[in-house]
Amino acid sequence: MKISMKTLKEYGIITLGVILLAISLEYFYYPNDIAAGGVSGLALVINKITGISQGMFMNVANVILFALAFWLIGGSFGGRSIYAAFGLSITISLIESFLPTFALTENMLLATIFGSVVGAFGIALVFSQNSSTGGTAIVAKILNKYLHIEIGKSLLCADCVVVVCALLVFGVDKALFGLIGVFIMGILIDKIIEGFNSCKQLLIISEKSEEISQVIMKEIERGCTKIEGTGGYSKEPVTILYVVVNRRQFISLKKKIKEIDPRAFITVNDSKEVFGEGFLDLVEM
């Protein structure tokens, strides 16, 4: 079966996200005994209480949660998440087997901050491909789909439960650092995902609207919509161009418009998400 370039790209991004998350765990969280939520954090608590290995607990928990993912979200999400979850465990095993594991910093605050930042980037990359690293991330995705709660906030609620468990087992200090990590990651994940998907929405009024529209379609390679209007002062007919572009295309388009018509009137708004051809696929969301 031939694998498309789109699929390879999606799994490549998921793999990069998994690697970043593994680094945050192995070099910031684990060496400093920080349990910042997630099934991995809960596994530490269960291991401390019962002696059940972390791997066994995580496998059982993920089997249950993946079953829910297939049922409530669909096979695509579940399949990608299985890849990400087991990819994470394999990456962690490889790091522990072939690379020295140590704390990049023994300062608990620095470890929490930098571990959370690196981990948030990793999780955001995974989430951006309609996937998950398993565990409470699946719970967050389900809440996001059915209750429309932002992913970061959903993850925050689920992870806070884990932090409370850590408080009872590991003590106040480590639990509080874990809580700080949960808050940092919850905020950053939404911001990073928003940054991945954000676009610029432009309304352009120009006497050379036809020339600008050709540049948009042929050079910027985006579609545009022509809206016929009337000048409030001049009472003359005007053509308004409506176009949505990504940030890189926005920079290029501004330069092109300036070259064509320096007197063009342009309004620019930020769009958090755009669905449709050339942007996010509404069917997959």
UniProtKB/TrEMBL annotation:
InterPro entries: DUF2179, N-reg_PII/ATP_PRibTrfase_C, UPF0750_membrane, YitT
Pfam family, one: YitT_membrane
Chain ranges of the DUF2179 domain: 222-276
Superkingdom of this protein's organism: Bacteria
Keywords in alphabetical order: Cell membrane, Membrane, Transmembrane, Transmembrane helix
Membrane-spanning segments: 12-30, 50-73, 82-102, 108-127
GO cellular component: plasma membrane
Places the protein is found: Cell membrane
Protein topology in the membrane: Multi-pass membrane protein
Protein name per its UniProtKB record: Putative membrane protein
Biological source species: Clostridium perfringens (strain SM101 / Type A)
